[in-house]
Automatic annotation (TrEMBL), chains A, B:
GO terms for molecular function: L-isoleucine-2-oxoglutarate transaminase activity; L-leucine-2-oxoglutarate transaminase activity; L-valine-2-oxoglutarate transaminase activity. One of its GO terms (biological process) is L-valine biosynthetic process. Its EC number is 2.6.1.42. This is Branched-chain-amino-acid aminotransferase. Gene3D superfamilies: 3.30.470.10, D-amino Acid Aminotransferase, subunit A, domain 2 (3.20.10.10). It catalyses: L-valine + 2-oxoglutarate = 3-methyl-2-oxobutanoate + L-glutamate; L-isoleucine + 2-oxoglutarate = (S)-3-methyl-2-oxopentanoate + L-glutamate; L-leucine + 2-oxoglutarate = 4-methyl-2-oxopentanoate + L-glutamate. Acts on leucine, isoleucine and valine. Belongs to the class-IV pyridoxal-phosphate-dependent aminotransferase family.
Length: 355, 355
């Protein structure tokens, strides 16, 4: 792997779009920073790594990504501290995960040195797009997709790996109401649920719309066989606090191995909070809600950070949750963000200084 | 719905690429005819229907299709008879299925009159791209995809509906060897397996590559729970002939409701061949292979037509199949193609004259 900085060609914007951006009214993931990274896979190798002004691609309508969803992505964030230093959070995890996703989707893996070099160069150029202040961040979207022309259903021999960056605020603005899946499902044993494969997300839009019509923002997915075990939400892993124990599903080939999830588990263990990584059933959850032992539910994810759940729906019943005094979700959110924004020690070595 | 022909703007090529095409050496789905159809969904309506020269799109790298696989497609074919007339085969089925797929993927449905008008106009323009002769056809690829810019995981509010056309010969050139899925799976209960959703296909590439390395062209997928029931192949439904009974899996939310499959069932019933639409187990299949009652396996699909299976692999055993004298697969292939190429009566009303 080439670690030289010369391998990325840089074409800068002539005028930054930064002054036009209304940072107080950002819609999540719809504004993009001045530059993007692009690298092509052809003739068996990644090549032509380039940083260039964010803008449209010229691409054939017969590119395989449009027809066969051969595409994977990642989601990470850059945070700015009070001195203007910029940090990523555990970026090695995202790097490893995109390659794991790529492998499952028959996409060639991307070189580590080039991935980090691209991030360094992009963030050096677009540092001012990272706003300081708790809750502000620059969302980073690496992705890979099949660009070979052809409508035969077989893996492509040409791909693009790209990185876009988007200034964001919180993903959910209030508490989240969720419904427990009883009919639709997110992934199968032996499927691609553990990968951040593009098609996993599009497939959830319709059932999530149905949930929205009933007043829920998200679905908590259950296993496809029996709808018995609680798995994860659309873009978050899910934690349940029963009495003082923190329960979350084990990862599997159906569940994304979330970076925030594993960070919450590590913080809980450090703080002496009992954790139990096991398959919780819907029956147990409902019983705990009824007998009062269910104290909290929250989601964890890069976009959503820690997202408290204020109610869940099941079998046409709604179970409301009142946030306890010693809220775990608030505690983890604060502890995580303090590390991310360089407001606390970093005992785990999760901060990655970048610009 | 507007049925006027004025609603599609037509921009013709100045010079046809037809003379450059080597029709004897076509790679499936990699050559495209002179024109394509494109229509945009925005502000809540399909608009700007246009036929234009086949060529690249200018599209944002943040378009949702790249990130969330919110895309569906269809596959159909145009056939030319000996007098130069062009026919589609049951195109209403494809029209209905793409809208069914779209619904499951939260994509707005496309108007019927516009779909057929687009096909009529495209085929009038590119009629010479349909080559006569058994086995030659023009493969037609309607598809819809999310074009809205934004990396928030939610349905788009802008889409493109397009139709590409590609001259093809046979999809498989010889007999096909298949392996029975024992680890990976194609779809989940409550998932999107019954839709022609883009991501279903990309998700199969890796396990299909593993099968290829062992000498199989395709995987026969089984249910994700137990890998016990035989379902379908990557781009074909699957039929098993045990003694003289033709068995195929019932469609479900995991299995594509194939047009070729239902045509084979109709022809079999007309011809007095016993059919049994039921869930065949892998155990039954292996037992039938061992006791000699398994006579044939074949796949059915628009691209592959009828594709005889010459062997299947299971548990590291290979079961070879010898084509019987009174081969069902040959018979159905002939009867289907005779209808498609206007060489026989069309008692079912499946031929659709178009150009
Ligand atoms: C399906 C799914 N589960 C969980 C997560 C949370 O993972 P992470 O904490 O790494 O962002 C995400 C988002 O990345 C996701 O898409
Ligand atoms: C998964 C799958 N099964 C079966 C088929 C066969 O369907 P049809 O006969 O309509 O082409 C296809 C191809 O269209 C397919 O993609």
């Amino acid at each position: 792997m080439n670690t030289s900085t010369e391998q990325i060609t840089v074409k800068k914007v002539t005028t930054s779009r930064l002054p036009e951006v209304d940072f107080d009214n950002l819609v999540f993931g719809s504004t993009f920073s001045d530059h993007m990274f692009m690298c092509d896979f052809k003739d068996g190798a990644w090549q032509d790594a380039t940083i260039l002004p964010y803008g449209n691609l010229s691409i054939s309508p017969a590119a395989k990504v449009f027809h066969y969803g051969q595409a994977v992505f990642e989601g990470m964030k850059a945070f700015k501290d009070e001195d203007g230093n910029v940090f990523l959070f555990r970026p090695e995890e995202n790097f490893e995960r995109i390659n794991k996703s790529s492998k499952r989707m028959a996409i060639p893996e991307f070189p580590k040195a080039l991935f980090f070099e691209a991030l360094h160069k992009l963030l050096a150029l677009d540092k001012d797009w990272v706003k300081g202040g708790l809750g502000n961040s620059l969302y980073i979207r690496p992705f890979a997709m099949a660009t070979q022309v052809g409508v035969a259903a077989a893996p492509a021999n040409e791909y693009k790996f790209m990185i876009l960056m988007s200034p964001v605020k919180a993903y959910y603005t209030g508490d989240v109401k969720v419904t427990i899946a009883q009919k639709y499902s997110r992934s199968a044993n032996g499927g691609v649920g553990a990968a951040k494969a593009a098609g996993n997300y599009g497939a959830q839009f319709y059932p999530t719309n149905l949930a929205r019509e009933k007043g829920f923002q998200q679905v908590i997915w259950t296993d496809a066989d029996e709808h018995k075990y609680l798995e994860e939400a659309g873009t978050m892993n899910v934690f349940f606090r029963i009495n003082d124990t923190l329960i979350t599903a084990p990862t599997s080939d159906r569940i994304l191995d979330g970076v925030t999830r594993k960070s919450v588990l590590a913080i809980a263990e450090r703080d002496g909070i009992e954790t139990d990584v096991r398959r919780l059933t819907v029956g147990e959850l409902v019983a705990a809600a009824k007998d009062g032992s269910l104290k909290e539910i929250f989601g964890s994810g890069t976009a959503a950070v820690i997202s408290p759940v204020s109610a869940f729906g099941y079998n046409d019943e709604i179970f409301e949750l009142e946030k306890p005094q010693d809220s775990y979700s608030e505690r983890f959110k604060k502890e995580l963000m303090d590390i991310q924004y360089n407001r606390a020690q970093d005992p785990f070595g999760w901060r990655y200084p970048i610009a």
